[in-house]
Amino acid sequence: MHIEQPDEMAILNYTSGTTGYSKGVMLPYRSLWSNTRFAADHLSFIKAGDHFVCMLPMAHMYGLAFEIMNGINKGCHIHFLPRVPNPKVVIDTFTAVRPRLIIAVPLIIEKIVRTRIFPEINKPTTRLLRSLPGIGRLIDRRICKALSAAFGSDFSEIVIGGAAINKEVEQFLHRIGFRYTVGYGMTECGPLISYEYWKT
């Protein structure tokens, strides 16, 4: 009987964020294991029985490592979007599932912020109130609570990656104290390169 060794190829994954033709990346078992181990050590807020919503394709290394393998390793419930993602489908799914960890590309976050929040905060009265010392902070807390509700309210953090996040949206999220972080990785690294919990 063959026992897989750490340096043996576990998966041949084709790059998604490349120019030209996708390139096959040979990832060994140790690469998958190290990402799963990292998640176990650094995402300690995830417990057995928590819920994940898979929005990234399963052929995407980040989705495979942190939504599927991490979810299975921790004993979580893994849910899949019923249709192609758009703000309504995503919000309805998050409201029903109430995921503990959300991993998303910037476009999903930006669309939700721009369709659900920006129209409200750009009203003249809200803009005036947000500019007032003291009151502005209270308004921002309420905005943060409303935005958190769109993501199911129970999440510990949202990890955004896969592309650059819009500067205006990122500054807004930071100002209201939203629970998010930006991660970075690439298929060849199996995939994680950098991550830091949102509170640090």
Automatic annotation (TrEMBL):
Record Pfam families:
AMP-binding
Instruction: Report the SUPFAM superfamilies cross-referenced here.
Output: Acetyl-CoA synthetase-like
Gene Ontology MF term list: CoA-ligase activity
Q: Determine the domain of life of the protein's source.
A: Bacteria
Q: Where is the AMP-dependent synthetase/ligase domain?
A: 4-195
Q: Which Gene3D superfamilies match?
A: N-terminal domain of ligase-like
Q: What is this protein called?
A: AMP-dependent synthetase/ligase domain-containing protein
What does UniProt list as this organism's lineage?
Bacteria, Pseudomonadati, Bacteroidota, Bacteroidia, Bacteroidales
